[in-house]
Write a structure and sequence with these properties.
- By secondary structure, the protein is α/β, with parallel strands linked by helices.
- It folds into two domains: 3-13 and 27-300, TIM Barrel (Alpha-Beta Barrel), CATH 3.20.20.70; 309-402, Sandwich (Immunoglobulin-like), CATH 2.60.40.1180.
- 26% of the residues lie in helices and 25% in strands.
- The chain has eleven helices and 22 strands.
- It has helices at 3-15, 38-41, 47-59, 62-65, 97-106, 132-142, 159-173, 224-229, 257-269, 285-291, 294-300, and strands at 33-36, 69-71, 77-80, 86-88, 110-116, 146-150, 178-181, 199-201, 213-215, 220-222, 243-245, 274-276, 309-314, 317-323, 329-335, 341-345, 351-353, 360-362, 368-372, 377-381, 386-390, 394-402.
- It has an eight-stranded parallel beta sheet with strand order 11-8-7-6-5-2-1-12. A six-stranded antiparallel beta sheet has the order 13-14-15-22-19-20, covered by helices on one side. A two-stranded antiparallel ribbon has the order 3-4.
- α3 (47-59) packs parallel to α5 (97-106) and α9 runs parallel beside α11 (294-300).
- The chain is globular and about 70 Å long.
- The N and C termini lie far apart (58 Å).
Length: 403
């Protein structure tokens, strides 16, 4: 596409802005799955690293397990040219962004990119403010499939209006793009973003620890349990095409295997986007096994699209339920404590009622088969109590299927 043609398109769009602009409604009918460069590599990125991530997503079995997006985060940017169009950093991406996108596509994967609603990104690169339609055209020309849109250096901008502007720009550019809103939940996006983005961050950044706060001065990063607790009250806003996003995963980034397993499981119970953030080329077998557990992934990707809820909590042991398609349920026993927890759950003593939607399980009237999704083993039915021990910082996750 020539520069003159791009200008003509841009002038046409700006001059006759479509009043029916919208997000691409057929995307993200289940929570998006993929990989993002930020958690592990931050600004230390280049085209070879991104190509390797795509290669490893395929060779590790992650693509077969459902992961599809390779998302390059902040610090890919070069400068804007004299006409205001953004270019990739020539040293980091000497082949250009279009060639990199084509490479990712050649692996049967989709490509995601990053920008910011403000004047500069969080890493000090050129933001999209005032260039939204130019950037959307550029992304479409490159073949981008996913945009993570951050909220640094936005001054007194209105969040909803800013994200609408980029949504409309993406729509008018004509290429379907999954729009990931990343303003950290500061402006309660769950209340207004359903028709704007396909997912929205609900918290500040995640940090690879079980239960901690990493204080950066005027902002904080949060451990897995802290972020999990921040999801309380948000499940009613999520569903197919519009998901709560508790941030990218830290599986494989330094926590214990049990903590990684619990982290991954709870994101699945939350029907959260499963965006890995580790080094895909340097994974332990345990990390691969967690990230590619298709039975747990199926809980996240369940077509009903309902987020799980905490049913009970006592002495650090939480019991979570998640309604599934076909009248089935997922159940997770999460041990937040530092010691073992015994479970003796008599199903018939519990009548499960979804607090936000019209789903219920009456174990006195209906019997369910039980499968352990981490041991990949069929157990008995809900006719008898479930007895087990949950190790510290770990989970037991079951699928209940109607007989």
């Amino acid at each position: 596409m020539t520069l003159k043609k791009i200008f003509l398109i841009l002038i046409t769009i700006i001059g006759s802005h479509q009043t029916n602009a919208q997000k691409f409604d057929d995307l993200a009918q289940t929570p998006p799955m993929g990989w993002n460069s930020w958690n592990k590599f931050a600004c230390d990125i280049n085209e070879d690293l991104i190509k390797a991530a795509a290669d490893n997503m395929v060779s590790s079995g992650m693509k077969d397990a459902g992961y599809e997006y390779i998302v390059i985060d902040d610090c890919w940017h070069g400068e804007r040219d004299e006409n205001g169009f953004i270019h990739a950093d020539k040293e980091k991406f000497p082949s250009g962004m279009k060639a990199l996108v084509d490479y990712v596509h050649s692996k049967g994967l989709k490509f995601g990119i990053y920008s910011d609603a403000g004047t500069e990104t969080c890493g000090g690169e050129p933001g999209s403010r005032g260039h939204e339609y130019q950037d959307a055209i550029t992304y479409a020309r490159w073949g981008v499939d996913y945009l993570k849109y951050d909220w640094c250096n936005t001054g007194k901008q209105n969040a909803e209006a800013s994200y609408i502007t980029m949504r409309d720009a993406l729509y008018d550019a004509g290429r379907p793009v999954l729009f990931a809103i990343c303003e950290w939940g500061d402006n309660q996006p769950w209340e207004w973003a359903q028709d704007i983005g396909h997912m929205w961050r609900t918290t500040g950044d995640i940090y690879p620890c079980w239960d901690c706060e990493e204080d950066h001065g005027n902002w904080s990063s949060w451990g897995v349990l802290r972020i999990l607790d921040m999801q309380d009250g948000l499940r009613k806003y999520a569903g197919p095409g519009h998901w709560n996003d508790p941030d990218m995963m830290e599986v494989g980034n330094g926590m214990t295997v049990s903590e990684d397993r619990a982290h991954f499981t709870m994101w699945a119970m939350l029907a959260a986007p499963l965006i890995a953030g580790n080094d895909l080329g340097n994974m332990r077998e345990e990390t691969v096994n967690i990230l590619t557990n298709k039975e747990v992934i199926a809980i996240d990707q369940d077509t009903l699209g309902v987020q799980g809820f905490k049913y009970s909590s006592e002495d650090g042991l939480e019991t979570w339920f998640k309604p599934l398609a076909g009248g089935n349920w997922a159940v997770t026993f999460l041990n937040r404590a530092d010691t073992d927890h015994e479970i003796n759950f008599n199903w018939k003593d519990h009548e499960i009622k979804d607090p936000d939607f019209d789903y219920a399980a009456n174990f006195k009237a209906v019997t369910y088969n039980i499968r352990d999704l981490w041991k990949h083993k069929n157990l008995k039915t809900t006719e008898k109590s479930f007895k087990s021990i949950v190790p510290p910082h770990d989970v037991i996750t079951l699928k209940l299927s109607r007989k």
